[in-house]
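Example 3.2
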Amino acid sequence: VQLVASGGGLVQAGGSLRLSCAVSGITFSTNTLGWYRQRDRQREMVAGVTDGNVPVYDNSVEGRFTISRDNDKNMLFLQMDGLLLEDTGVYYCNAISGYGNPLYDWGQGTQVNVSS
């Protein structure tokens, strides 16, 4: 399984970024997928999307982030608008189990830095 996130960078507060994750080695279309943010050694899920394309968001990003998936290209996306300083972190993608846990070893993350 390969999980390769990209698209991070340095952006001012209030700005936008679009993250992408290339996924291989799994049956992409049948998996629930999610974006996780790591800050201060803690990793938390900020957005997920089911195999039925139903999104879920953490309260901290609700209304600002949009998760989407392209089953034809095995790609997961995260549109991040209205970025806040606290959105700074390393973002990873993963598949999610029925219990809400990440399924696979973590792949390459992408660093997002939001400045004031």
